[in-house]
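User: quick one, fold this
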Amino acid sequence: MATFVLVHGSHGGGWIWQKVTRLLRAGGHEVYAPTLTGVSDRAHLLACGVDLTTHITDVASLLLFEDLSDVILVGNSYAGIVITGVAAKVPERLKLLVYLDAYCPDDGQSEADLWPAEMRAAMQADPATSRGLRQPPPPALFGITDLELTDWVQARWTPHPLATYTEPVPYGNARSAALPRVYIHCTAGLGTSTPLFAPCAAKARANGWEVRELAAGHVAMLTAPDEVADLLLEWR
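Assistant:
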């Protein structure tokens, strides 16, 4: 039996993994899908000064208090930054890092450092930026085209704290650097997701990671849950 911890990206919550969680648990595996502080069902905590350290602590604390070890830690999108930070903090609890169409920063990089210049400019022009927030994008931008699923997602997505994007990921150590890492690149992403994450997949290949391609949109856990679960189970 494997232990999976699934970490959502911007605007989401643990709910975004519902379909994948059911599939993994049906196989007898232990699965956790926490919601990060300040978003979704924990949006009421946004005023507590949420930054990247908060989100790294959310996940690292889950591993500690649930006494988890040999964890397959999965992060989608922004959560690639989070799981990298968790690996730097508690590598002894981890077995494998899986980046699901996610950012893969170097030590000391922030997510904002990985944005194209036009994306940074658009973010600065957004009125929500002055309030320290990033508003959710249209679901179609991430490959969600089904109308019922679109409504379901829009009812759950919440603004994301901007400080999580600008704080650099902490530096790791020899033990965290030695952790195996794999990358799943979603090749049917729409809008900004393809130019953002194709370079991440290329970087993963250059670093010697195993890279797999999935013909799905950026939030494949919603649109291709069976395929995502099957891939995760290959590394259990």
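User: anything notable?
Assistant: Residues 177 and 234 are 22 Å apart (CA to CA).
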